[in-house]
Amino acid sequence: MLEKIKTPKDVKKLSIAELEKLAEEVRQRIIKVTAKTGGHVAPSLGATDLTIALLKIFNPLKDKIIWDVGHQSYAFKILTERNDRFETLRQFKGISGFNNIFESKYDAFGVGHASTSISAALGITIAKEMTNKKGRVIAVIGDGALSGGMAFEALNHAGHLQKEIIIILNDNNMSISKSVGALQAYLTNILVSRSYNVMKNLIWDFVQHLPHRVRRRIILSARKLEENMINTLAPNIIFEDLGFKYVGPIDGHNMPRLVRIFNKVKHNMTGPIFVHVVTKKGKGYEHAEVDSPRFHGLGPYEIETGKSVGKKRASYSEIFGSTLCEIARENKNIVAITAAMTDGTGLTGYAKEFPDRFFDVGIAEQHAVTFAGGLAIQGLKPFVAIYSTFLQRALDQVLHDISLQKLPVVFCLDRAGLVGEDGATHHGVFDLSYLNLIPDLVVMAPANANEFKDMLRFAANYNEGPVVIRYPRGSAKFNNSENNSIRFGKYDVVKPGEKVAIMGIGKAFEDAEIIYNKIKKDFPKLKPYLLNPRFLKPMDTEFLKELTKKVKTIFTIEDNALIGGFGSSIKNYFANSDIKVYSFGIPDQFVPHGEITDLKNFIETTPEQIFEKIKAILK
Ligand SMILES: Cc1ncc(C[n+]2csc(CCOP(=O)(O)OP(=O)(O)O)c2C)c(N)n1
What is the pLDDT of residues 172-205, one digit of tens each? Predict the structure, then answer.
């Protein structure tokens, strides 16, 4: 089947049985490729039938399909002229793991961060109307993403405007881990509502007892009747009251049903429509069905066993989780908060050990931050674990609700720096810049695992105001240095020197050390300083003043945007002196996806490339 699909138009020609066969083939393709590349396996398998039914009924160029997050759109990619490139998924210069308008004309809106689809779809709807363009607009959003504030804001707006918009809720009862929140409980309630189940059983019992001849026709009518009954009896009032026509719940793996409902929605319904589709995360691949949190997003794996391939060393996330447990055992005021990333941020063990001092707030970073403010103002000590890239949307909360009131909240920013295969939407390369401008905020970045543990302990005891610790994805090296102890705002002078100083903040310290050794080798007479600043702010001005007397040239290295980052602070500090500061970091561009070494090479920031530039300067 799949070979016959050259463009999505070919999907339209298929019978229901052929669509079902196609779904099976697409699933096999997703499994085969992601076993090598890694990726968001379970979300995409779960949405495969739904995708095929959408393509059977809608036209993805004239109609616009907007995926939320985009991690569930592999089937869509495969069926919209990207099958031949699907092996390059998430690899450097290959196709992205999310939707990207520069990658394909079928991708209606770029995504990666959650809960944006309804807002974008509503904008597209209005623009289409204002410019007399035909076609329907469809947002496909998961139950996890629906918990995000933006989704609520957009529902509120869409229900009010009463424009043509179709929202498809892909409800699998899972975010990455189990979905949380009152809305989720409500959605589950719809599915298990007594009246719905009782009525459904009654109808089907009745049909089974009918003579063969009439059964088929009756089954068809019964299905319609069942849908209508559900609409009447299930507690679907929220979406109806918000101004939507509610359709569902529909089995998201029943192809004839999906096709029939989408057809009805397209041809017989207008205004804002909310279609509730129930899917199984990981559908069709046993390992992903059983362990959907791990198969939400993972690296390469063995198809037969589902086991991940490759060795694993302790990651920063794991060290964060275990250290926070140690701290929380001693300090009863510690509270941990995650925005739907319990596992990703390393908090699974903590959540088990301290269920009363743990909050998963759903995909709600802004709420997570201000909620922590409320806890802190009452004397608790919240640790908010959020990926660097996702804190971007809570900048105002960090500034206005936390820092302005000097509340002692600790922000643990995982996945800072380049993250690799998830690409531009997920690189955590802006935090040093967007946090740098906030007064009364302490910002630290550890260079190794020991230092990270020390920073966490330091932050737990620091009660003068908020603290940020940002650390990279992946494994953390323990070092043998005695000098891990953190002193407020103090840089670590790893090697004293003269004339030249090399500073690498956080993960970039590893590169600074490599470059330091290269300089020592190529310029034996030079005795450079090697500095691990640890703090972005406050700056160690006492030390920098001393440095003014000793050096003429400073090199800074960071895995953050050059604009506004660590290097720019150092440059600013020395702006009126005769000291020259050269900074290396992320240039003013969005960095694509791929392995981190390829990406660094691409933006010319491997230690070797930086050293070549430094060599030219030193010469
Ligand atoms: C703002 C933001 N926060 C966190 C994430 C990380 N994230 C990606 S997918 C996901 C869960 C989405 O759940 P759901 O919408 O139900 O989709 P499913 O994976 O279950 O199909 C999360 C938390 C994100 N992409 N964006």
Answer: 988 887 878 888 888 877 776 645 555 665 666 6
In the block, tokens 């009363």 appear at 356
Dihedral angle at the C-alpha atoms of 272, 278, 283, 288, nearest 10 degrees? 100
Nearest to 572 by CA among 588, 559, 558, 556: 556
Distance 60 CA to ligand 1 centre (A): 23
> Which atom number of ligand 1 is nearest to the Cα of residue 40?
19
In three-state form (DSSP H/G/I as H, E/B as E, the rest C), the secondary structure along 132-190 is CCCCCEEEEEECCHHHCHHHHHHHHHHHHHCCCEEEEEEECCECCCECCCHHHHHHHHH
- CA–CA separation, 385 and 342 (whole Å): 9
Give me the chain's average pLDDT, please. 93
**Strand-pair partners of 581:** 554
> Which neighbouring-strand residues pair with 246?
274
Report residue 565: phi and psi, to 5°: -90, -155
Q: Which atom of ligand 1 is nearest to the CA of 144?
A: 16
Q: Which residues line ligand 1 (CB under 6 A)?
A: 43, 46, 69, 71-72, 113-114, 142-145, 170, 172, 174-176, 281, 296, 339-341, 363, 365, 390
d(CA 101, CA 137): 16
**DSSP H or E run through 359:** strand 358-360
Beta strands across the sheet bearing 580-586: 492-495, 529-532, 499-504, 551-561, 580-586
Q: How far apart are CA 107 and CA 443, in angstroms?
A: 37
Is the model's pLDDT at 210 over the cut of 90? Answer: no
Cβ proximity of 53 and 255 under 8 Å? yes
Whether cis (ω within 30° of 0) applies to the bond prior to 538 is: yes
Residue 311's pLDDT band (cuts 50, 70, 90)? low
* Residue 141, strand partner residues: 169
Q: Measure the CA dihedral 72/76/82/88, to 10°.
A: 10
Cβ atoms of 474 and 416 within 8 Å: the answer is: no
Q: Pick from 404, 415, 535, 405: which is nearest to 468 by CA?
A: 535
Mutate to test the pocket of ligand 1, among 44, 74, 173, 175 (most ligand atoms within 8 A of CB): 175
Structure tokens at 519: 């300089």
User: Helices (DSSP H) in 469-606: which residue ranges?
Assistant: 508-522, 541-550, 566-573, 596-602
CA atoms within 13 A on the CB side of 121: 33
Instruction: Find how far residue 335's CA is from the centre of its chain.
Output: 23
Mutation pick for ligand 1 pocket among 188, 363, 365, 414 (CB with most ligand atoms within 8 Å): 363
- Measure the CA–CA gap between 80 and 105, rounded to whole angstroms: 9
Ramachandran bin of 246, using left for φ above 0, alpha for ψ from -120 to 50, beta for the remaining angles: beta
- pLDDT digits 0-9 by tens, 489-507: 999 999 999 999 999 999 9
Beta strands at 492-495 and 529-532: parallel, antiparallel or unpaired: antiparallel
Q: Is the pTM of this model over 0.85?
A: yes
Residue in 73, 75, 142, 132 with CA at minimum distance from that of residue 108: 73
* CB neighbour list of residue 312: distance below 8 Å, 6 or more residues apart: 475
